[in-house]
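To close the chapter, one final illustration. This time we ask the reader to focus less on the individual chains and more on the assembly as a whole: which components sit near each other, and how the overall shape emerges from the parts.
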Amino acid sequence: MRVFVPSQLRSYTGGRSEVEAEGATLGAVLDDLDRQFPGFRFRVIDEQDRVRRHILLFVGEEREERLLAPISAGAGLFIVGALSGG
Amino acid sequence: MPVFLGQQVHHVVLDPRDRRTLLAASRQWHLGPTVFRSDDGGATFKEAKVPPAFVKGDPRGRAVDHVFWLTPGHPSEPGVWYAGSSPQGLFRSEDGGQSWEPVSGFNDHPEQHKWVGSDKDQTPDGGKLHSILVDPRDPAHLYLSMSGGGTFESTDRGADWKPLNSGVAMDFAPPKEDGSEYPYGHDPHCMIQHPANPDRLYQQNHCGIYRMDRPEGRWIRIGKNMPAEVGDIGFGIVSNPRNPDCAWVFPMDGTGDWSRTPPSGRPALFRTRDAGASWQRCDVGFPKENAWWTVKRQALAADSGSPMGLYLGTTSGEVWSSQDEGDSFSCLFRHLPQIHAVTVGEPA
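The assembled structure is written out below.
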């Protein structure tokens, strides 16, 4: 699936704003991103598996915070630096 | 040139053991906490492979909001570092800061939740663990302080901890009916251990300036010897590495609304050369009036020179220095963002 990477995380993706990742759930996609870009997951999800306070995740147009939420391959994952984080 | 522009660096420390390894505790608003590591004195940095984090599934649901403090380990344990976090957590690295593990003896101590209290017992930006001190005579002998929570001591490398707060005021709690003291829950802002006389401890607390000479276990409020119109509230405290009786503080207004700015808008350090029996105002070079910045606890530093140099970073983005132990000050840098930390290192 396509993953859209916010500016705050592009130091992990070599500057790319869009990358590919695989996984049947939101958690699995983030795990794959962490395999490709070490350290990525911890900047999005804290040690208690909570989405960080100022990060928003959208699967397609729907906000999602459940790591076990299923993801269809056709939907994009949009990672957004929330306005609340400045 | 800025490094990590846009991130808050709460502490940056050069390893005095190799004088090359530099760790920086960073918080990025969106991405949260991490530690960056340089092995070339700051020319290049890499993020820790396993940053400080509480145990997954922590029964209290704790997650590190920011890494607040960094302390190199004992000289006999190269590569060991300690980190303190907000909320209050203690972490240890054995590989020079590349990977971090929670110190279970502290984080999971059955009394720890009582020590730190509730949300209303924390400093405004969240409770913090700081002033991790490693006894230069014994790597198993540790101190740490918490805002809030108080000061604690371990003699077994962090496996168990005991409070060390006797004699410290706690003006934000009612007197106990039986006249006894609260054993913990205090708000030490900064604690230091003198390198040449490790039995000498100083503490700048939310409620005063204190000294303790071990094995004594009771703090003496040396801040009572400060001028009454200045008071003895502040964030940081430093000592002269060659003279345990010599220390400096930067007082701030702890009255009324707690502005945390210099009393009357007149910044000054206060210096003692007799272990707190008397204090001298040191303000030559500072603005004489209408200066409303303050100096955070990691932003007051001393070097090991003779005469000793003092360095302070302000909340208004200035760095000031004294090269004559506080007799006079000059401004080194202006127009920086709010300064969280100024530390001194001697690169290889």
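Chain B has two helices and 23 strands. Helices of chain B lie at 104-107, 112-116. With these observations in hand, you are ready for the problems at the end of the chapter.
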